[in-house]
Specification:
The protein is mainly β. It is built from one helix and five strands.
Amino acid sequence: MIAPEPDGIAWRKSSYSAESGGCVEVATTPDRALVRDSKNPNRPALAVPAAAWRASLLPPPAER
């Protein structure tokens, strides 16, 4: 889902960012994570439900 950004949101750049600037930035709110292209920060962000975002950060079940 594409979503408007709340005021005063804090964006973090991925620690795996390429030196060429090809990376994503993430901001979290209590109910969602917002993801955007760091090269195009004025474009709309992708909104992901908070539970889905947390699940995507876990290792696969076989590795837990």
